[in-house]
Predict the 3D structure of the following.
Amino acid sequence: MSTDNILKKHNLRVTPFRTLVLSLFTSAGKALSSHDLETELQDADRITLYRTLKSFEEKGIIHKAIDGTITQKYALCENECSEYHHHDEHVHFHCEKCENTFCLEQVFVPRVRMPDGFSAKQTNMVVSGVCDHCVLD
Ligand SMILES: [Zn+2]
Ligand SMILES: [Zn+2]
Ligand SMILES: [Zn+2]
């Protein structure tokens, strides 16, 4: 799907900046931090970038890729995500060599049993190790 179509499908107006930010996600193949995005976008206004990421997240285009590091990263959602159904319960993989974080969309986060009185809303799972690019080096 083209970036314009992704924006339209999620009820966001197509603007050059949104298209640009989204294209970075679609071509990255990994999770991106706001620092990564700022580096790519050079002179982008931080507030505008922050708002763009926030609306992308609200509309189900990107999700937080929690990877156990202090850096907040975002990754592109699967096709089925929308404003109303936004579950990205797959494992995130953090590579210790290249320090990139990847969505392992085929690997589901297992259900964990909660003790009485606790009700789970979201489960995040991070696996760290060496990714398939680095393992060849
Ligand atoms: Zn999502
Ligand atoms: Zn790696
Ligand atoms: Zn993910």
